TrEMBL record:
<feature type="domain" description="Histidine kinase">
    <location>
        <begin position="41"/>
        <end position="260"/>
    </location>
</feature>
<protein>
    <recommendedName>
        <fullName>histidine kinase</fullName>
    </recommendedName>
</protein>
<feature type="coiled-coil region">
    <location>
        <begin position="73"/>
        <end position="100"/>
    </location>
</feature>
Length: 270
Protein backbone atom coordinates (compact mmCIF):
# COMPACT_ATOMS: atom_id res chain seq x y z
CA UNK A 1 0.00 0.00 0.00
CA UNK A 2 0.92 3.70 0.20
CA UNK A 3 3.07 3.27 3.30
CA UNK A 4 5.09 0.53 1.64
CA UNK A 5 5.65 2.75 -1.39
CA UNK A 6 6.83 5.61 0.84
CA UNK A 7 9.08 3.22 2.75
CA UNK A 8 10.55 1.92 -0.49
CA UNK A 9 11.10 5.46 -1.75
CA UNK A 10 12.77 6.40 1.50
CA UNK A 11 15.03 3.37 1.32
CA UNK A 12 15.94 4.18 -2.27
CA UNK A 13 16.77 7.78 -1.29
CA UNK A 14 18.97 6.61 1.56
CA UNK A 15 20.71 4.12 -0.72
CA UNK A 16 21.36 6.92 -3.24
CA UNK A 17 22.75 9.14 -0.48
CA UNK A 18 25.06 6.41 0.73
CA UNK A 19 26.28 5.76 -2.84
CA UNK A 20 26.88 9.51 -3.13
CA UNK A 21 28.74 9.55 0.16
CA UNK A 22 30.90 6.63 -0.89
CA UNK A 23 31.76 8.45 -4.11
CA UNK A 24 32.58 11.68 -2.25
CA UNK A 25 34.70 9.75 0.20
CA UNK A 26 36.57 8.01 -2.61
CA UNK A 27 37.15 11.32 -4.43
CA UNK A 28 38.38 13.01 -1.25
CA UNK A 29 40.75 10.12 -0.61
CA UNK A 30 42.07 10.34 -4.18
CA UNK A 31 42.54 14.11 -3.85
CA UNK A 32 44.56 13.62 -0.67
CA UNK A 33 46.67 10.98 -2.42
CA UNK A 34 47.30 13.27 -5.40
CA UNK A 35 48.26 16.09 -3.03
CA UNK A 36 50.64 13.88 -1.05
CA UNK A 37 52.24 12.59 -4.23
CA UNK A 38 52.56 16.15 -5.50
CA UNK A 39 54.22 17.28 -2.28
CA UNK A 40 56.75 14.50 -2.57
CA UNK A 41 57.47 15.31 -6.25
CA UNK A 42 57.67 19.04 -5.48
CA UNK A 43 60.10 18.55 -2.60
CA UNK A 44 62.24 16.33 -4.77
CA UNK A 45 62.21 18.82 -7.65
CA UNK A 46 63.08 21.71 -5.33
CA UNK A 47 65.89 19.74 -3.74
CA UNK A 48 67.49 18.53 -6.99
CA UNK A 49 69.07 21.87 -8.04
CA UNK A 50 70.52 22.33 -4.56
CA UNK A 51 73.06 19.50 -4.88
CA UNK A 52 75.03 20.87 -7.86
CA UNK A 53 74.60 24.40 -6.48
CA UNK A 54 76.08 23.43 -3.12
CA UNK A 55 78.93 21.50 -4.78
CA UNK A 56 79.95 24.42 -6.97
CA UNK A 57 79.73 26.92 -4.09
CA UNK A 58 81.77 24.55 -1.96
CA UNK A 59 84.61 24.27 -4.47
CA UNK A 60 84.59 28.05 -5.07
CA UNK A 61 84.82 28.57 -1.32
CA UNK A 62 87.71 26.07 -1.13
CA UNK A 63 89.45 27.80 -4.01
CA UNK A 64 89.06 31.20 -2.30
CA UNK A 65 90.66 29.75 0.82
CA UNK A 66 93.36 27.79 -0.96
CA UNK A 67 96.96 28.79 -0.44
CA UNK A 68 98.05 26.94 -3.62
CA UNK A 69 96.26 29.43 -5.81
CA UNK A 70 92.67 29.95 -6.81
CA UNK A 71 90.91 28.13 -9.67
CA UNK A 72 91.52 29.59 -13.10
CA UNK A 73 89.07 32.03 -14.65
CA UNK A 74 87.58 29.46 -17.02
CA UNK A 75 86.82 26.94 -14.26
CA UNK A 76 85.35 29.72 -12.16
CA UNK A 77 83.11 30.78 -15.04
CA UNK A 78 81.95 27.19 -15.57
CA UNK A 79 81.15 26.89 -11.86
CA UNK A 80 79.19 30.14 -11.93
CA UNK A 81 77.29 28.98 -15.04
CA UNK A 82 76.16 25.84 -13.26
CA UNK A 83 75.23 27.78 -10.12
CA UNK A 84 73.25 30.35 -12.11
CA UNK A 85 71.41 27.67 -14.09
CA UNK A 86 70.36 25.91 -10.90
CA UNK A 87 69.19 29.16 -9.30
CA UNK A 88 67.16 29.91 -12.45
CA UNK A 89 65.65 26.42 -12.28
CA UNK A 90 64.69 26.89 -8.63
CA UNK A 91 63.21 30.25 -9.39
CA UNK A 92 61.10 28.80 -12.25
CA UNK A 93 59.78 26.05 -9.98
CA UNK A 94 58.85 28.56 -7.30
CA UNK A 95 57.18 30.82 -9.89
CA UNK A 96 55.04 27.88 -11.02
CA UNK A 97 54.03 27.12 -7.45
CA UNK A 98 53.15 30.78 -6.87
CA UNK A 99 51.13 30.85 -10.09
CA UNK A 100 49.16 27.80 -9.04
CA UNK A 101 48.33 29.32 -5.68
CA UNK A 102 47.40 32.59 -7.40
CA UNK A 103 45.09 30.68 -9.76
CA UNK A 104 43.58 28.78 -6.82
CA UNK A 105 42.86 32.08 -5.06
CA UNK A 106 41.39 33.54 -8.27
CA UNK A 107 44.13 36.17 -8.31
CA UNK A 108 45.70 35.68 -11.71
CA UNK A 109 45.71 39.24 -12.95
CA UNK A 110 46.18 40.16 -16.58
CA UNK A 111 47.86 43.21 -17.99
CA UNK A 112 46.04 43.84 -21.28
CA UNK A 113 48.10 45.48 -24.01
CA UNK A 114 48.71 45.25 -27.75
CA UNK A 115 51.04 42.34 -28.37
CA UNK A 116 52.48 40.82 -31.54
CA UNK A 117 52.24 37.06 -31.03
CA UNK A 118 54.71 36.40 -33.86
CA UNK A 119 57.29 38.61 -32.15
CA UNK A 120 56.70 36.91 -28.78
CA UNK A 121 57.23 33.51 -30.40
CA UNK A 122 60.48 34.59 -32.10
CA UNK A 123 61.73 36.11 -28.84
CA UNK A 124 61.02 32.98 -26.80
CA UNK A 125 62.57 30.75 -29.48
CA UNK A 126 65.66 32.99 -29.41
CA UNK A 127 65.90 32.53 -25.67
CA UNK A 128 65.82 28.74 -26.10
CA UNK A 129 68.40 28.82 -28.92
CA UNK A 130 71.43 27.84 -26.77
CA UNK A 131 69.53 24.95 -25.15
CA UNK A 132 68.09 23.74 -28.47
CA UNK A 133 71.37 23.84 -30.36
CA UNK A 134 73.15 22.09 -27.50
CA UNK A 135 70.57 19.31 -27.80
CA UNK A 136 71.03 19.33 -31.59
CA UNK A 137 67.37 20.16 -32.02
CA UNK A 138 66.20 22.41 -34.85
CA UNK A 139 63.46 24.86 -33.91
CA UNK A 140 61.73 26.71 -36.73
CA UNK A 141 59.20 29.50 -36.62
CA UNK A 142 56.59 30.02 -39.31
CA UNK A 143 54.98 33.43 -39.05
CA UNK A 144 54.06 35.16 -42.29
CA UNK A 145 53.64 38.54 -40.57
CA UNK A 146 52.65 40.25 -37.31
CA UNK A 147 49.62 38.89 -35.47
CA UNK A 148 48.60 41.65 -33.12
CA UNK A 149 45.91 41.44 -30.49
CA UNK A 150 45.04 42.77 -27.05
CA UNK A 151 46.56 40.21 -24.73
CA UNK A 152 49.05 40.06 -21.87
CA UNK A 153 52.64 39.99 -23.11
CA UNK A 154 54.32 38.34 -20.11
CA UNK A 155 51.60 35.71 -19.79
CA UNK A 156 51.78 34.98 -23.53
CA UNK A 157 55.54 34.57 -23.20
CA UNK A 158 54.85 32.10 -20.43
CA UNK A 159 52.44 30.12 -22.64
CA UNK A 160 54.96 29.91 -25.49
CA UNK A 161 57.79 29.12 -23.05
CA UNK A 162 55.87 26.25 -21.44
CA UNK A 163 54.83 24.72 -24.77
CA UNK A 164 58.28 25.07 -26.32
CA UNK A 165 60.09 23.73 -23.28
CA UNK A 166 57.77 20.69 -23.29
CA UNK A 167 58.33 20.22 -27.03
CA UNK A 168 62.09 20.18 -26.40
CA UNK A 169 61.81 18.05 -23.26
CA UNK A 170 59.54 15.39 -24.78
CA UNK A 171 60.67 15.98 -28.39
CA UNK A 172 63.35 13.27 -28.52
CA UNK A 173 65.79 15.75 -30.10
CA UNK A 174 63.73 15.88 -33.31
CA UNK A 175 62.78 19.14 -35.06
CA UNK A 176 60.20 21.39 -33.42
CA UNK A 177 58.03 23.83 -35.34
CA UNK A 178 56.03 26.79 -34.07
CA UNK A 179 53.61 28.50 -36.39
CA UNK A 180 51.55 31.63 -35.94
CA UNK A 181 48.66 32.62 -38.17
CA UNK A 182 45.21 34.12 -38.06
CA UNK A 183 41.89 32.48 -38.73
CA UNK A 184 38.53 34.23 -38.63
CA UNK A 185 39.73 37.02 -36.32
CA UNK A 186 41.49 34.54 -34.04
CA UNK A 187 45.20 34.06 -33.60
CA UNK A 188 46.35 30.50 -34.04
CA UNK A 189 49.53 29.14 -32.47
CA UNK A 190 50.73 25.63 -33.22
CA UNK A 191 53.61 24.01 -31.37
CA UNK A 192 54.56 20.81 -33.08
CA UNK A 193 57.09 18.17 -32.03
CA UNK A 194 58.01 14.71 -33.31
CA UNK A 195 58.81 13.27 -29.90
CA UNK A 196 57.46 10.58 -27.58
CA UNK A 197 53.81 11.65 -27.95
CA UNK A 198 50.95 11.13 -25.50
CA UNK A 199 48.67 8.12 -25.08
CA UNK A 200 45.12 9.04 -26.12
CA UNK A 201 43.81 8.10 -22.68
CA UNK A 202 46.06 10.74 -21.13
CA UNK A 203 45.33 13.56 -23.57
CA UNK A 204 42.49 15.07 -21.58
CA UNK A 205 44.33 14.73 -18.26
CA UNK A 206 47.57 16.51 -19.08
CA UNK A 207 45.98 19.94 -18.54
CA UNK A 208 44.88 19.05 -15.02
CA UNK A 209 46.72 20.30 -11.97
CA UNK A 210 49.56 18.05 -10.78
CA UNK A 211 48.97 15.71 -13.71
CA UNK A 212 52.02 13.99 -15.06
CA UNK A 213 51.46 11.46 -17.81
CA UNK A 214 55.08 10.38 -17.86
CA UNK A 215 55.77 8.61 -14.63
CA UNK A 216 59.46 8.08 -15.37
CA UNK A 217 61.34 10.41 -13.09
CA UNK A 218 63.82 10.73 -15.92
CA UNK A 219 61.94 13.73 -17.31
CA UNK A 220 61.40 15.58 -14.04
CA UNK A 221 58.85 18.34 -13.69
CA UNK A 222 55.97 19.29 -11.44
CA UNK A 223 53.12 18.63 -13.85
CA UNK A 224 51.99 22.25 -13.47
CA UNK A 225 53.11 23.80 -16.76
CA UNK A 226 50.12 22.80 -18.88
CA UNK A 227 47.66 23.56 -16.09
CA UNK A 228 49.07 27.10 -15.82
CA UNK A 229 49.21 27.38 -19.62
CA UNK A 230 45.58 26.40 -20.05
CA UNK A 231 44.47 28.77 -17.27
CA UNK A 232 46.27 31.69 -18.93
CA UNK A 233 44.91 30.87 -22.39
CA UNK A 234 41.37 30.63 -21.01
CA UNK A 235 41.78 33.87 -19.05
CA UNK A 236 42.71 35.50 -22.38
CA UNK A 237 39.48 34.12 -23.81
CA UNK A 238 41.19 31.43 -25.88
CA UNK A 239 41.33 27.67 -26.11
CA UNK A 240 44.07 25.06 -26.03
CA UNK A 241 44.05 21.45 -27.13
CA UNK A 242 46.55 18.72 -27.83
CA UNK A 243 46.68 16.18 -30.64
CA UNK A 244 49.17 13.39 -30.44
CA UNK A 245 50.25 10.01 -31.70
CA UNK A 246 52.42 8.02 -29.29
CA UNK A 247 55.89 7.60 -30.72
CA UNK A 248 55.27 10.14 -33.47
CA UNK A 249 54.82 13.44 -31.68
CA UNK A 250 52.40 16.01 -30.39
CA UNK A 251 50.85 19.26 -31.55
CA UNK A 252 49.49 21.83 -29.14
CA UNK A 253 46.95 24.19 -30.69
CA UNK A 254 46.20 27.53 -29.08
CA UNK A 255 43.58 29.97 -30.32
CA UNK A 256 43.28 33.51 -29.04
CA UNK A 257 40.46 35.90 -29.84
CA UNK A 258 40.79 39.60 -30.57
CA UNK A 259 43.26 39.95 -33.41
CA UNK A 260 43.28 43.60 -34.54
CA UNK A 261 41.56 43.74 -37.92
CA UNK A 262 44.17 45.99 -39.56
CA UNK A 263 46.87 43.49 -38.75
CA UNK A 264 44.90 40.45 -39.69
CA UNK A 265 46.47 38.54 -42.53
CA UNK A 266 43.37 36.70 -43.56
CA UNK A 267 42.00 37.44 -46.98
CA UNK A 268 38.81 39.46 -46.64
CA UNK A 269 35.63 37.67 -47.53
CA UNK A 270 34.13 39.49 -50.51
P1 LIG B 1 55.63 18.52 -16.57
O1 LIG B 1 56.31 18.57 -17.91
O2 LIG B 1 56.29 19.36 -15.52
O3 LIG B 1 55.37 17.12 -16.10
P2 LIG B 1 53.29 19.76 -17.82
O4 LIG B 1 52.06 20.26 -17.15
O5 LIG B 1 54.05 20.72 -18.65
O6 LIG B 1 54.18 19.17 -16.66
O7 LIG B 1 52.88 18.50 -18.70
C1 LIG B 1 52.06 17.49 -18.14
C2 LIG B 1 52.37 16.15 -18.79
O8 LIG B 1 51.97 16.18 -20.17
C3 LIG B 1 53.85 15.81 -18.83
O9 LIG B 1 54.24 15.14 -17.64
C4 LIG B 1 53.96 14.92 -20.05
O10 LIG B 1 53.65 13.60 -19.72
C5 LIG B 1 52.86 15.43 -20.97
N1 LIG B 1 53.37 16.31 -22.05
C6 LIG B 1 53.35 17.66 -22.10
N2 LIG B 1 53.86 18.13 -23.26
C7 LIG B 1 54.21 17.05 -23.99
C8 LIG B 1 54.78 16.86 -25.30
N3 LIG B 1 55.11 17.89 -26.09
N4 LIG B 1 54.99 15.58 -25.72
C9 LIG B 1 54.66 14.52 -24.92
N5 LIG B 1 54.12 14.64 -23.69
C10 LIG B 1 53.89 15.88 -23.21
Amino acid sequence: DERDVRLAEDLARRAAISVDNARLFREAKEAVQVRDEFLSIASHELKTPLTPLRLKLHSMRRSARSSEGAMDAETLRAHLDVAERQVARLSRLIDSLLDVSRIGAGKLELDWEDVDLAEVVREVVGRFEPQASKAGCAVTVRAPGPVIGRWDRLRLEQVVTNLLSNALKYGAGKPVELSVSTEAGHALLLVCDQGIGIESGNLSRIFERFERAVSERHYGGLGLGLYITRTIVQALGGTIEARSTPGEGSTFIVTLPGVSAEHSLQTPVS
